[in-house]
Design goal:
By secondary structure, the protein is of the alpha+beta class. Helix content is 44%, strand content 22%. The protein has ten helices and 14 strands. The strands form three sheets. Strands 1, 2, 3, 4, 5, 6 and 7 form a seven-stranded antiparallel sheet that branches. A five-stranded mixed sheet has the order 10-14-13-11-12. It starts with a helix and ends with a helix.
Length: 386
């Protein structure tokens, strides 16, 4: 959006630059243009009849009847121009009327500065300069209009048919005025949007890999893990930390149940997800026989097809028994955890589930800090009982 208004300012600068160069360097962009249908000549060249004059910022041009060409004269700023009519009357455009046309180059300079600043972070300054450029352009247009009214009034005293018009430079300046005003407002709006984006970015919460998902069940919390966080590795690492430190850093957590994938609580969907999660473990190369167990827990769902005797055999079929895998309910190496909550099912394939007391944080921590009685303490206890 900012670049769009910068391009608008570039266009305004190019138009203003063309107006500032003006006659005699660019014959098209004059301030005032007069057409004659009679014997009119410059005051110092009586025999050179002209049909048109063009007044610019740095000089003027005459169109001679003999050649039909425009002959331009470079006079510099604040020039004097005198013309003679067929009745011998002369009319003069004094330097005071053309001196103010210098406001066009001044406006061009401010437009250039505003254009440069629009490509920086100083958008407010660029907008103010854009409006100031429009103001200076307006002053130039007012001076141009005053020159036009003065010339039209003077030319009517020559005694010939004449037609005085505003030159293209005036209308191009009007375009510059409109472009500068619109660019100023556009840059302010762009600055406001930029500040809003910067503020949103500045106060945006830092990215997190864990997110608490609300579930309407007491004593149950669901924590969503975003990649690269792995729920199984996260739980495994926490229990390994408890094993090293013999203390848990969680105060109100009884048990952790990792979930690798979720699906709808429908037998077909559950079997499809199970095949996907079983492949890296039970179909690994080289093949390795595993003792496994399927542990199912259902909450807030009473569908008969999700009961253990119906669902567990179907999931067990996803394990390729021809690779030597066997069911072991007492001492499994791999445990398939299946958690069904309402209409959602979560599955995870874990190891060391038995070692870490079924991922019971409190029970496992207490087992590490339990002091086994010595032989002497047992003997003293027996004597005291006797």
């Amino acid at each position: 959006m900012i670049r769009a208004f910068s391009i608008v300012l570039i266009l305004a600068f190019l138009l203003s630059l063309l107006v500032s160069i003006s006659v005699p360097y660019i014959q098209v962009f004059d301030a005032v243009r007069v057409y004659f249908a009679g014997q009119v000549s410059e005051a110092n060249t009586v025999n050179n009849i002209i049909t048109q004059i063009r007044l610019g910022i740095w000089g003027f041009c005459n169109r001679a009847v003999k050649t039909g060409d425009l002959v331009c004269t470079t006079t510099g700023l604040a020039y004097d121009y005198t013309i003679r009519g067929p009745n011998g009357a002369t009319e003069r455009v004094a330097p005071s009327w053309t001196r103010g046309l210098v406001m066009s180059p001044v406006a061009t300079g401010f437009v250039l500065i505003a254009t440069i600043l629009s490509f920086t972070r100083h958008l407010i300054v660029a907008a103010i300069l854009s409006w100031f450029s429009a103001f200076v352009t307006f002053i130039f247009m007012a001076i141009n209009l005053a020159l036009y009214l003065h010339v039209r009034g003077e030319m009517r005293h020559l005694g010939v048919v004449e037609n005085t018009d505003l030159g293209p430079g005036f209308w191009m300046s009007l375009a510059v005025l409109i472009l500068c005003i619109s660019s100023g407002f556009g840059l302010l709006i762009a600055r406001r949007n930029l500040n809003k984006v910067s503020t949103d970015y500045q106060y945006a919460p830092p990215p997190t890999f864990l997110e608490n998902i609300y579930v309407d069940t007491k004593c149950l919390a669901f924590i969503s893990c975003r990649p690269p966080a792995d729920p199984v590795k996260l739980v495994q690492a926490y229990f390994e930390e408890i094993e090293r430190t013999k203390r848990a850093r969680t105060r109100n957590v009884l048990r952790l149940s990792p979930i690798e994938g979720t699906c709808a609580a429908h037998p077909a969907e559950i079997v499809h997800l199970a095949r996907k999660l079983f492949a890296p473990v039970f179909q690994a190369n080289p093949p390795r026989a595993r003792r496994f167990k399927i542990q199912l827990k259902v909450r807030n769902n009473s569908k008969p097809e999700l009961k253990s005797e119906m669902l567990v055999p179907e999931i067990a079929k996803c394990v390729p028994l021809d690779r030597g895998h066997v069911v072991d309910l007492q001492n499994p190496e791999i445990v398939v955890l299946i958690e069904i909550y309402q209409a959602v099912c979560g599955i995870a394939v874990v190891s060391d589930w038995i070692k870490y007391k079924r991922y019971n944080v409190v029970e496992y921590t207490q087992s590490l800090n339990r002091v086994e009685p010595t032989i002497s303490e047992i003997s003293e206890g027996q004597k005291s009982s006797d």
